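Internal tracking record. Fields below are filled automatically when a chain is submitted to the structure queue. Please do not edit lines marked as system-generated. If the sequence contains nonstandard residues, flag them in the REMARKS field before resubmitting.
Queue: standard
Priority: normal
Entity type: single polypeptide chain
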Amino acid sequence: MSRKKTITSAFSAAAATYESAAHAQISAADALVDRLGRLSSPLKVLELGCGTGLLTRRLDAALPAGSHILATDLSPVMIQAAQARLPHISFAVMDAEAPDVSGPFDLIASSLAAQWFTDLPGTLGRLTGLLAPEGRLLLTTLGAGTFIQWKQAHGELGLDSGVPEYPEAATLAAMLPGAQVESRPVTLSYKDARNFLLSLEALGAQTPKPGHRPLSPGQVRRIIAALGSPCAMTWDILLLDYRR
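SYSTEM-GENERATED OUTPUT FOLLOWS
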């Protein structure tokens, strides 16, 4: 199974539990809508990786009357979950890295989906081509400081973590000249590291970086013990804002 299919299957399986564990995701969606600011004219909006509709619901409430949202996701199961809450919104199953839509869009928005892209720089370039004159791309993704505690615990035990290689804010900004990027880290407290892992499974976000060899049960127990209880874990949320 390809990595993209593995990721899609994991999120599809988590559609019913996603929002119970989506604390960082809520913070990211709120930050994106806050950055959007006050608007006066209706917008044509494309959302990528809508999941269960956390950001979609916030955009629907914040946008001026007459705006139109097309919310998309790779997972048909996630689309069904989002559409059940927002029957008046347009939804479609779509790969954000190969957008099959007709622009232009006044706003392209995505919250905590871009970290799963295979080719983030190329995708950002393709998305800007779908923007209307003076259109805007707003997205949140994960940065290099994400799960730093988990990575440090692995390093101290001489182990390699499965956390993907996320970019620094400056690196992300360099992928799209003219973009502004800021880091808005959120540190959450979990009962212990086992509870943290269970929360990732509830989100469908447990797919490790490509080529990662799973740890043995004994190694996992050592890491859980090293992180203690309670266990703090940082989500390094990067907010990218680009105006055409």
